[in-house]
């Protein structure tokens, strides 16, 4: 039953999960557009004949969201609101046989390294000349910038290597060319992402080359900010800190998931670093890059985590005072090393422990924000919400960190511009300010 005239040549792409998946959707959309398809990303229009769902298969909640999205579009197909449903990405990579059996309405399932085959299914060709080109889904002034694929780390709780394969760095020349094209198109901020950013170059050049890559990207005309996400603590390439300190367009910002602080749990998680090593690294980063904002991610309720382990983590979070912090309740993922352990921390306890860590962090975040009142920060204006300009300082990544709110009735600013903003007010997770 057809409810609306569908446009055969139009494709809607839906992305779930992390910024790396978003990057892949942008590459897919660039290829589709080059093959003369009309492409939209998560738009409200309902006239696309084809929908491609780029799924996430990381942990329980993310998997559920992906399955719900697939079922939504399977129902839409039955109702004639779409003709073809295609599924790709991590969930599909991990559970293809089960998904094919359980959701037969889906026309085809693809993995995370199947772009040419997916395009072929739509009668399109993979265009090699487009390497590094994509259709941005973010405002043009900032772009996620994936420098490698896959991961060689053995973290016990993590299913990502199962879905993304071994670590493969992109050639530096390709990345520098991609950055130059983006800068020419108006991109001011590059947000560097990978499964393990600090591993960059080891496979390709036989040495850690992130510092060198940073220098090359920092030399690209027009790039005002370079931000680092997903650094790994063990074997951290300290020379990166010198580049961060010396280059004004490398943000004094570092996202480094640390997961826990208990020696026993770090060993079980196979993180390759101890409590002492972690503390040494954090203080050395702060020493070598004064004023750096540190973001981290932790796991609550890992198998065998005791109340004392949790208290140890809480005490350490209170004392370390991270600028930004997120917590995931542990998710028992089959085929991971930790799956052999007993998932003995109850769901409610996991949730309560995660909330306790976030409550402590909320206090810290408010105090750190209050200390910024009166100071002036270079701020990138992202968008306008009603009568408010919304921007970010170099200490804030899009979507996950603080916003700077500026009264638009009083002051005129331009989206995509950097502006010097004096901070006039602070909340737990937002700042307010005015042009300095
Ligand atoms: S570094 Fe560890 S947690 Fe991160 S993607 Fe690799 S295996 Fe997973």
Characteristics of this structure?
436 residues; alpha/beta; 6-stranded parallel β-sheet; 5-stranded parallel β-sheet; 13 helices; 18 strands; 24% strand; globular; binds iron/sulfur cluster
Gyration radius from CA atoms, angstroms: 22 Å
**Proportion of strand residues:** 15-25%
Low-confidence stretches: none
Order of strands side by side in the largest beta sheet? 6-9-10-11-12-13
Task: Find the structural class using helix and strand composition.
Answer: alpha/beta
Number of helices: 13
* Shape by Cα distribution: globular
Largest β-sheet summary: 6 strands, parallel
Helix content: 25-40%
Distance between the termini: 59 Å
Number of strands: 18
Q: How confident is the prediction overall: mean pLDDT?
A: 96
Small-molecule components bound: iron/sulfur cluster
Helix and strand layout, with pairings?
Blueprint: E1 7-15, H1 19-34, E2 38-41, E3 48-55, H2 60-78, E4 84-89, H3 90-102, E5 108-109, H4 115-121, E6 142-146, E7 148-149, H5 160-164, E8 168-169, H6 172-184, E9 189-193, H7 202-205, H8 210-218, E10 225-228, H9 239-246, E11 250-255, H10 263-268, H11 275-288, E12 293-300, H12 307-320, E13 324-329, H13 347-370, E14 376-385, E15 388-393, E16 403-407, E17 418-426, E18 430-435
Parallel strand pairs: 1-2, 1-3, 3-4, 4-5, 6-9, 9-10, 10-11, 11-12, 12-13, 16-18
Antiparallel strand pairs: 7-8, 14-15, 14-17, 15-16, 17-18
Helix pairs in contact: 8-9, 12-13
The protein binds iron/sulfur cluster.
Polypeptide structure, described:
- The chain has 436 residues and is of the alpha/beta class.
- Helix content is 35%, strand content 24%.
- It contains 13 helices and 18 strands.
- A 6-stranded parallel beta sheet has the order 6-9-10-11-12-13. Strands 2-1-3-4-5 form a 5-stranded parallel beta sheet, with helices on both faces. It has a 5-stranded mixed beta barrel with strand order 14-15-16-18-17.
- Helix 8 (210-218) packs parallel to helix 9 and helix 12 packs parallel to helix 13.
- The radius of gyration is 22 Å and the shape is globular.
- The model has no long low-confidence stretch (mean pLDDT 96).
- It binds iron/sulfur cluster.
- The site of iron/sulfur cluster (SF4) has 9 residues, from helix 5.
């Amino acid at each position: 039953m057809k409810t609306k005239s569908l446009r055969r040549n139009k494709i809607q792409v839906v992305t779930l999960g992390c910024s790396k998946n978003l990057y892949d959707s942008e590459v897919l959309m660039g290829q589709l557009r080059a093959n003369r398809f009309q492409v939209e990303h998560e738009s409200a229009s309902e006239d696309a004949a084809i929908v491609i769902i780029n799924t996430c298969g990381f942990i329980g909640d993310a998997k559920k969201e992906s399955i719900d999205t697939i079922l939504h579009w399977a129902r839409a197909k039955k109702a004639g609101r779409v003709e073809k449903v295609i599924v790709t990405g991590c969930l599909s990579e991990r559970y293809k046989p089960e998904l094919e059996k359980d959701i037969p309405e889906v026309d085809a399932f693809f993995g995370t390294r199947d772009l040419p085959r997916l395009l072929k299914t739509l009668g399109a060709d993979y265009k090699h000349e487009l390497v590094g080109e994509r259709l941005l889904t973010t405002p043009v002034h900032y772009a996620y910038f994936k420098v490698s694929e896959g991961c060689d780390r053995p973290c016990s709780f993590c299913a990502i290597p199962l879905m993304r394969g071994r670590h493969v760095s992109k050639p530096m020349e390709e990345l520098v060319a991609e950055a130059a094209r983006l800068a020419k198109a108006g991109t001011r901020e590059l947000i560097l992402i990978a499964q393990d950013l600090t591993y960059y170059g080891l496979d390709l050049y036989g040495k850690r080359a992130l510092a060198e890559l940073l220098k090359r990207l920092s030399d690209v005309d027009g790039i005002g900010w370079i931000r680092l996400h997903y650094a790994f603590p063990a074997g951290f390439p300290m020379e990166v800190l010198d580049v961060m300190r010396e280059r004004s367009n490398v943000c004094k910002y570092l996202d480094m998931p640390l997961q826990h602080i208990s020696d026993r749990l770090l060993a079980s998680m196979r993180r390759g670093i101890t409590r002492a090593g972690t503390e040494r690294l954090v203080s050395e980063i702060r020493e070598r890059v004064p004023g750096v904002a540190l973001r981290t991610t932790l796991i609550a309720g890992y198998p065998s985590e005791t109340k004392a382990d949790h208290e140890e983590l809480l005490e350490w979070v209170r004392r370390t005072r991270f600028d930004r912090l997120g917590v995931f309740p542990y998710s028992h993922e089959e085929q991971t090393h930790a799956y052999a352990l007993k998932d003995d921390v109850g769901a409610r306890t996991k949730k309560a422990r995660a909330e306790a860590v976030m409550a402590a962090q909320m206090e810290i975040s408010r105090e750190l924000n209050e200390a910024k009142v009166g100071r002036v920060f270079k701020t990138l204006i992202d968008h306008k919400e009603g009568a408010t300009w919304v921007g970010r300082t170099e200490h804030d990544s899009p979507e996950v960190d603080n916003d700077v709110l500026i009264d638009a009735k009083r002051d005129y600013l331009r989206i995509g511009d950097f502006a010097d903003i004096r901070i006039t007010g602070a909340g737990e997770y937002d700042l307010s300010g005015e042009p300095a």
